[in-house]
Design goal:
The complex is a heterodimer. Chain A is mostly helical. Chain A contains nine helices and no strands. Chain B has eleven helices and ten strands. The chains are: A mainly alpha, B alpha/beta.
Chain lengths: ~210, ~250
Amino acid sequence: MTDTLAFLLERRSDIAEMTLEHVFLVAVSIGIAVVIGVPLGILLTRRPSLASPVIGFASVMQTIPSLALFGFLIPIPLIGGIGNTTAIVALVLYALLPLLRNTYAGIQSVDPAVVEAGRGMGMTDLERLRLIEIPLSLATILAGIRIATVNAIGLATIAAAVGAGGLGTLIFRGLSMVDSRLILAGAVPAATLAIVADGLLGRFERWLGWDR
Amino acid sequence: MSGPAVELKNVSKRFGARQVLDRVSFRVEPAETLVLLGSSGAGKTTALRTINRLVVPDEGEVEVEGREIRAWDPIRLRRRTGYVIQDVGLLPHLTIAENVELIPKLEGWSPERRSERVRELLAFVGLAPERFAHKKPRELSGGERQRVGVARALAVDPPLLLMDEPFGALDAVNRRRMQDEFLEMKQKLRKTIVIVTHDVPEAMKLGDRIAVMHGGRLLQIGSSSEIVERPADDFVAELLRVESALPT
């Protein structure tokens, strides 16, 4: 135990650097996924006939084993190859489902009387979206971002397999060298990141939801 | 303004296979209160919603201030038409004041003018502004929320007011009180008002004229005494008899 701790301390600058890489991977992926997923989820509430094919596609993405998905992406030009891009593309694909589903469900669940009142008062589509539907579904949308983020922190460890860096690098190195201390050096910070992100986003969610 | 404030001419509407409106025609004169009376499924709500273009008729014409509904910009039309619904539909994340000033804000009124208007309107509907302005809708009773709904509908002083079962969700005591206040308000404001209700005594009490609807058709239109004394057909007679007997 003390041996492991000493080892971790010794490697702290490595661990810190890889944690930063990890956070970067997750932050960029979730950022892109939010920019795609939230507007797309809103669009689906306007075109309900598209909802089941699009959400279906996102669900299928979710079922592909992550290691396989990274593998599939490598040969694809522009988005593939070895490195960050491939990892980010894969993480974005995984994050889409919770974002789409929660955005769609959140907006669908806004009290129809409120939306009807907004329409009857003469609010334009955009005004209704901005003043009624988005504020009232924000807590649900945020819950989707939270799930996607926690998932992505776990998945991003596997991204090291395609050379994207991050805490997974330590884990893979530990696996190949059969050194459990190295595995722990990657796994413990990754788990801690997930717990911290979950707690922070959860707190933000409750703060937003307090008045409903 | 000359001519009727609102006129429906042979308006028909289908939702799928269901004929919800079948060649409905009526006029509402300026400053008049017309009640659309009928049981559920009569088409009265749909008829009301053609007036602010929430429903576009398949056939026939709807004129507001002499202008056909399709010639109006729907947003402009709705902003000059107060709309009150049974479920009120206050925005739960905004305060009472913010709810009431929503449209004035979108119309670009200054903050001073808006808060002045909010005070005026809340006082008008019998809610002390200093007590209610900063509350959230969920802190209010059903009757209070309904009053806020009316205040919101009056915010930009629209010449036309559409009310769909405005007192339908209230208990008998509150309902009667709101009806009395409505009559007072009507006297003060002199607006053109169309109200939907299924409640015969309410229709008699509030309406200058009553339009009886059933199965998407308009059966009879006239003052309450005309309808009571000379019902157009058996159905109207039956509706008056049955519904009047029910406690409200």
